[in-house]
Amino acid sequence: MVQxxxxxxxxxAAISSLAEVPERITSAFxxxxxxxxxxxxVKQYAIGVPFTQIVDDYLPMYAGQxxxxxxGKDGSIWGAVMEKSLAKRYGNYEHTVAxxxxxxxxxxxGSPWVEFKHHETEKSTLWEKxxxxxxxxxxxxAGTEVDSSNGVVGGHAYSIIDHVILEGRRGEEVKLVMxxxxxxxxxxxxxxxxxxxxxxxxxKDAVEKQTGFRPRSNNExxxxxxxxxFHETFSETQINQDTRNWHFxxxxxxxxxxxxxxxxxxxxxxxCTMHTINVTNNxxxxxxxxxxxxW
Length: 295
Description:
Blueprint: H1 9-18, H2 22-26, E1 39-46, E2 49-56, E3 61-62, E4 65-66, H3 78-90, H4 101-109, E5 113-117, H5 123-135, E6 139-143, E7 157-167, E8 173-180, H6 201-211, E9 222-226, H7 227-233, E10 236-240
Antiparallel strand pairs: 1-2, 3-4, 5-10, 6-7, 6-10, 7-8, 8-9
């Protein structure tokens, strides 16, 4: 899927990252076949609770093509429908201009997330996090603040697809991050860009063996960046958990009468109500995430 004529790169990057595992997209649609009446039901989450967003496939068009997310190469419309379902969630397409990638992912799969600000995170730590979460098939995105001389656009969202380790020409270890621009064109001209001198056929063979993808020009926005340049060019990396095999539970508390206020370090929640949740696990060890939302 390729971003259209509106600044919702955070949504397109989020959906594209989710789509690395097709099951995450098909499971978000209640009806997965083409609807004869053009009506689709998309699962979403709001304040931690799942709900169903109903949307039609009446898409804004210009010159015979969608104005926003395009059709797939195979003529599929799931990307455009999912984008429209989020536009309906937020009010309209214009309301989807600018946002955070983790919020787009979480709106679809209900996942918790973690963000690593690059100026606060050592390169080695960031690499280990990418490796670990890539192994777990978690959803990773990255954002920029300013335009870079290497062609990476500022104020933009990208998908992190994979990571690769190569042997450089002098025998050194080269760590590469595989990235996709939701515009469908990379624009990247730095080290390890498509036509850069760093590449050898042996390197391309190694990347293809590790990722199933062979570096080449005109590759729909996919490019590789070494860890040093990635850490310097991008301002943050955001990682959402893959929730396919999770068990969810949730409850909603209305008209909270508790007087146990304050105690939060979060500026917008200095007067929030504090509650204690006790979780008992009598089975095998497992990770448990507890989230709270104020509305």
